[in-house]
Amino acid sequence: MKINEVTAEAVGKWQSIFSSLGIDVGNGKHCPCPVCGGKDRFRFDNKNGRGTYICNQCGSGDGLELIKNYYHCDAKEASNKVAEYLNLTVQVSHLTRCELAQRLNRSGYHCL
Ligand SMILES: [Zn+2]
Fold first, then answer.
1. How many whole angstroms from 95 Cα to the centroid of ligand 1?
2. d(C-alpha 36, C-alpha 52), whole Å
């Protein structure tokens, strides 16, 4: 999966992606930055559902950028974390057991 496909899939889901990764972004009000700390320098503004944020200390960016800064990893690794979360969500919420088994079989896994 390409990075821009992952971020396209992630639109509107960043709040739950962050909480699944243990990143506390608050509720849109000023709060400590999950990356650099402080008291009220960070704000999660989530423009267009893209997970955007503003920090007075370490700057602003989108959801992927925050994961990169939080884990000190590159964009590829950050997008892998997001893709992992999104796949899990898809399996649980949209696929029936049967569809899931078929999908697993197609990619070479044994039926559970
Ligand atoms: Zn910061």
1. 38
2. 16
Residues 6+ apart with CB under 8 A from 35: 55, 58, 66, 69, 70
What type of residue is 52? T
Neighbours of ion ligand 1 (CB under 5 A): 33, 35-36, 55, 57-58
Q: Report the C-alpha gap between 102 and 17 in whole angstroms.
A: 27
Dist. CA 7 → ligand 1 center (Å)? 21
For residue range 13-63, what is the model confidence (pLDDT) as tens digits?
Answer: 999 999 999 999 999 999 999 999 999 999 999 999 999 999 999 999 999
| Domains, the chain | 3-106 (3.90.580)
In tens, the pLDDT along 55-108 reads 999 999 999 999 999 999 999 999 999 999 998 766 555 556 666 666 666 555
Give 82 Cα–ligand 1 centroid separation in angstroms: 20
Residue 20 CA to ligand 1 centre (angstroms)? 20
